[in-house]
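hiii so um. not sure if this is the right channel but i have a protein structure encoded as tokens and i wanna go backwards to a sequence. like what aa goes where. can anyone help
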């Protein structure tokens, strides 16, 4: 099957996904990830429908198309390599598609076996990349381990790349509090649940921080922070129930502290990614690395994490 010059390999499937069909496709000698959006559906076979309904559907599609195209363009602009590049977004027939650079991912098991310093570097990369979206006023909205791809660089080091911007939104235009939120309950921030219950409030970048804190715990230990599973199904429920999550002491001290600050119940108290990044950039910070990881960071004033991206050649 071919879609807009992309030769689809096999069929698009819904594996790991509720809201899309995806697979891989080749174009001009390169392989891409391709995703078909289940929603919205453009009224191509319009003759059988009421004209008013056709118009309404077209208007919904147009709004979706304009907003998504602009959002993806801005996300691409934010990226300095570790937000996976969105190649194209288009409609073909009744469906919308997105194509992306294909990431040859390695499994989380490999990440778990990496030395601690490597996992620290992965966490810094994620703070930096998602922080760039935040500085642009964009919330990812679906941070979770499944939406982070781990890629092995030619040097053998592993880097983390962020995918799946389908739930992303501008903080200035948050989802309507009465709308259903499509995030994963495992990573849901307490305020997201509160908003759904009360049908008021606005989600902010702090929801990404909460979710990323949980992801970091998984990167360091393979597990989410602990809570009473006989009483609660998800971390946010435990937090809202007044329980403290329990954070593993396997995690290096400063990063354990960082994760605690990232998963604060009240969003106002939660650390921001900009503050988090400042912590290892400022002289004397305990998060400042003493290993060779930042080698090459000259006096150019470039951020250490930024230097890493360039040095790794992973742009
Ligand atoms: N750029 C990519 N390269 C390789 N695999 C990808 C890429 N983007 C997504 N995937 C794989 O496809 C799955 C579904 O994609 P995702 O964008 O997360 O869609 P969904 O919104 O359905 O979760 C991901 O969990 C991942 O396994
Ligand atoms: Mg996903």
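sure thing!! here u go:
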């Amino acid at each position: 099957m071919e879609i807009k010059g992309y030769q689809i390999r096999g069929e698009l499937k819904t594996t790991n996904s509720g809201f899309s069909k995806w697979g891989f496709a080749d174009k001009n000698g390169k392989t891409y990830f391709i995703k078909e959006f289940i929603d919205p559906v453009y009224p191509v076979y319009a003759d059988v429908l009421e004209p008013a309904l056709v118009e309404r559907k077209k208007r919904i599609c147009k709004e979706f198309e304009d907003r998504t195209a602009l959002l993806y363009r801005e996300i691409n602009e934010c990226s300095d390599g570790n937000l996976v590049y969105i190649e194209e977004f288009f409609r073909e027939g009744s469906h919308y598609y997105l194509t992306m650079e294909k990431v040859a991912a390695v499994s989380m098991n490999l990440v778990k076996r990496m030395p601690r310093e490597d996992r620290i570097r992965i966490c810094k990369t994620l703070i930096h990349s998602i922080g760039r979206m935040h500085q642009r006023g964009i919330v990812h909205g679906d941070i979770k381990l499944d939406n982070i791809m781990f890629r092995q660089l030619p040097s053998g080091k592993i880097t983390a790349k962020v995918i799946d911007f389908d739930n992303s939104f501008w903080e200035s235009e948050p989802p309507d509090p009465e709308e259903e939120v499509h995030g994963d309950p495992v990573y849901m921030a307490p305020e997201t649940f509160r908003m759904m219950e009360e049908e008021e409030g606005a989600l902010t970048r702090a929801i990404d921080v909460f979710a990323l804190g949980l992801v970091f715990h998984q990167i360091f230990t393979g597990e989410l922070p602990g809570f009473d599973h006989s009483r609660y199904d998800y971390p946010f429920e435990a937090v809202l129930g007044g329980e403290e999550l329990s954070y593993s002491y396997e995690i290096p001290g400063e990063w354990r502290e960082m994760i605690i600050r990232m998963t604060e119940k009240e969003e106002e108290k939660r650390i921001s990614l900009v503050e988090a990044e400042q912590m290892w950039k400022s002289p004397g910070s305990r998060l400042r690395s003493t290993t060779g990881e930042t080698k090459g960071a000259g006096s150019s004033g470039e951020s250490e994490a930024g230097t890493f991206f360039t040095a790794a050649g992973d742009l």
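oh and The chain has two domains: 2-102, 108-281.
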